[in-house]
Amino acid sequence: xxxxxxxxxxxxxxxxxxxxxxxxxxxxxxxxxxxxxxxxxxxxxxxxxxxxxxxxxxxxxxxxxxxxxxxxxxxxxxxxxxxxxxxxxxxxxxxxxxxxxxxxxxxxxxxxxxxxxxxxxxxxxxxxxxxxxxxxxxxxxxxxxxxxxxxxxxxxxxxxxxxxxxxxxxxxxxxxxxxxxxxxxxxxxxxxxxxxxxxxxxxxxxxxxxxxxxxxxxxxxxxx
Amino acid sequence: xxxxxxxxxxxxxxxxxxxxxxxxxxxxxxxxxxxxxxxxxxxxxxxxxxxxxxxxxxxxxxxxxxxxxxxxxxxxxxxxxxxxxxxxxxxxxxxxxxxxxxxxxxxxxxxxxxxxxxxxxxxxxxxxxxxxxxxxxxxxxxxxxxxxxxxxxxxxxxxxxxxxxxxxxxxxxxxxxxxxxxxxxxxxxxxxxxxxxxxxxxxxxxxxxxxxxxxxxxxxxxxxxxxxxxx
Lengths: 224, 231
Description:
The complex is a heterodimer.
Chain A: H1 6-12, H2 27-32, H3 37-60, H4 70-92, H5 94-100, H6 111-119, H7 126-156, E1 158-159, E2 162-163, H8 178-197, H9 215-220
Helix pairs in contact in A: 1-7, 3-4, 3-7, 4-5, 4-6, 7-8
Chain B: H1 30-74, E1 80-87, E2 90-92, E3 106-111, E4 117-127, E5 132-140, E6 145-153, H2 163-166, H3 168-172, E7 182-184, E8 195-197, H4 203-227
Parallel strand pairs in B: 7-8
Antiparallel strand pairs in B: 1-2, 1-3, 3-4, 4-5, 5-6
């Protein structure tokens, strides 16, 4: 097990281990609600809030939650914060709440959040769990904005509701439909893979010395 | 019993079994498991109820404002509106004491400046292409004319089915349509005032909107007769 610094805890989830673009976690909301940037930001903020609050609480209680009931306890903690977010969104921004529909409630079963509790927050002090949650939540938010930005611009010709193109622009309706989510995610993953792999030299094929002959060649020549 | 764990060293994320992992099964009696979940559940419930107390009036106010705006739109800006409750086969503005008005079905009557009733706003919903479409429409029983339609809830396909509230021609058709309406393929109408053009690419959603309104008018008429309305 390799020790990590606080800075690594914070930065890891933002890019190198981005929950959506690298780990492919939380894809259900990432693909379902990102047909507009406003929805993407709202889902990103809601998930960020739940992730950070849950990680802090799980870390605070990590010495008091028995192993047998830890998953139940984590789900209870996460579900509590999701319920709070659901009610607060309905009270403060009802239009966004209506647009996100059932996907707010489904944050409870977002494996990104439960995964960070089980693999990190339950084993770390509070400040490290909070940093990890902030980094991962920010990474999720970035992915949501990228996905929704591409889809809304191409699929609706707008960004955050502001028209970007003239009246002659024909929206690519497919981009705000489910297939558009998969297309966009695939392109973003390809781009990220290209970016991270650029400049990396591929290993050259091994050059065998001339005096070494293959087993088949030696056999054909009457060898052993 | 000792369940308190020691602080743990920082290790790479994803690794399990580090020092400080949750207590081993042998150390934790059953009563402690139950108590842990009971306390956690109680605290969670307390927190949720507290926030619910703060948010509920705001959520109800938003819903009331949304209904008021919809009534104003579908009845074409009435001077005054009155909430009527469906009660024993009729409509009444004052249900008997003890009736749970929050659960009673409602209809809104709109009046002009002279105090004349100009129509009723009715909510209805049926399954569309993807999910239930809920809408409100205004209806004038005297002329059997639909006065307006507003979609309250729809998850129809973006770019296609959502034209039931984004296509102005379709929405405006409900400001003058005669009931019962007849869904008509665009360009094939005969001039009948009951005809409403459907939407190319969203035929099922458009037909559902028309069906909802026709069905709810059928439902409303006996209530109006029972309440002495309809004039």
